[in-house]
Amino acid sequence: MTAAKRDDDAPASRFRLAAELRGLRELAGLSGRDLARLIDISQSQVSRIESGKSLPTLPQVREWAKAVGASPEARAWLLVTAETVRTESSPWPAALAGRPHLQDEIKEQEARTRESRCFQPSLVPGLLQTAEYARRVFEICREIVYNGEGLAAAVAGRLDRQLALYDPERRFQFLITESALRWRPGSVPAQLAQLDRIASLSTLENVSIGLIPLRVPALTYFSHGFVIFAEDEEREQDAFVTLETIHANTVVHDPEDIRLYEDRWSLLRQMAVFDEEARTFLAEIADEIRRSAP
């Protein structure tokens, strides 16, 4: 069996699946082109699946197993493993093992595609945070404890990720609830600076920032934030969704699950205000904060 070349941030199960699929193809004496023709996919997709860059669908795994004459036991293992790796969950202690923070890994994840859509119901998204806001978020985080140097490195890493916002070839969309805008992890001046930062970034042509006021009738509900990364054929990257829970970081690859997040995004977007209306809304919130400050 030939091992697939693996990326450092991908789970071992994905590469076991990739290596097994490639090994079965080679044992059957089939070239990548032969297999692609038999299961009706492109040769490049076969290569991406065997390298672990792309995850096969369950129907593709079934057809692959049939084409290479896999045993019933091997076929069952392939299907179970393929189902398992559609959603990857990495508990924070494991994700942080040997690393002071995860900002570099998140940056690499964000670089896989040219377009992303981020929804946040509870705090300002990391790509839009000021240094002070980011520092306070890291300080009060209970899942990950940062020491002095680790805290500074995490803040610097988060700010470094934000350079991508100024790349005109990248597109970023954000939806942020009013509750997230009003959440105050630090001082009033820091919160006002954060609102001003959002208003400024909303003027970038490749950045869309929608704000969801509490006064708008709800079209859907939400329980957590998420980021949808679009498919990028040039970078040979499938679409995927990331979400952070209290105990783990999760990456969703299953197309049906991704569609659920895309549908939810569509409804949330209908509730949002944009452009000048959004900047006016930010100014109203800022004025209210100033008036209520002690």
Note the main attributes of this structure.
Endonuclease, Chain A, 2 domains, seven-stranded mixed beta sheet, 13 helices, 13% strand, Lambda_DNA-bd_dom_sf, Cro/C1-type_HTH, HTH cro/C1-type domain-containing protein, DNA binding, DUF5753
How would you describe this structure to a colleague?
- It is a single chain.
- The protein has helices spanning 12-27, 32-39, 43-51, 58-68, 72-84, 92-95, 103-110, 131-140, 148-161, 178-182, 188-201, 255-270, 275-292, and strands spanning 87-91, 115-120, 171-177, 207-212, 226-229, 240-244, 248-252.
- With 294 residues, it is α/β, with parallel strands linked by helices.
- It folds into two domains: 12-85, 434 Repressor (Amino-terminal Domain) (Orthogonal Bundle); 89-292, Endonuclease, Chain A.
- A seven-stranded mixed beta sheet has the order 1-7-6-5-2-3-4.
- A hairpin with a 3-residue loop joins strand 6 (240-244) and strand 7.
- Residues 1-10 have low confidence and may be disordered.
- Pfam families: DUF5753, HTH_31.
- Residues 21-75 form the HTH cro/C1-type domain.
